[in-house]
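Many introductory courses stop at the sequence. We go one step further.
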Amino acid sequence: MGKKEKINEVKENISEILELPKDIMLDLPKITLLGSLELSIENHKGIIEYTNEKIRVKSKEGIIEILGKDLLIKTIIKEAIIISGKISSIEFEGRGA
């Protein structure tokens, strides 16, 4: 186990003991889907690709790919991205171990 993995394990244990949200402690993306019409991603690291049928977002843990029709980034700020449209799928491409 490497140094980063040990640090993440300690953070996860602290998060559980103090009952703090893991997404905040570990800087993990938090994805909220409202039906198939709107998607929010917190803790993102930026946009990689943006078309009206595909949006790819970078996160600490990998790439989040949103597929659909008429996709539109309604809001993008440092903390969150809000995407609207007809969302058909969300895929996660992890960085691997």
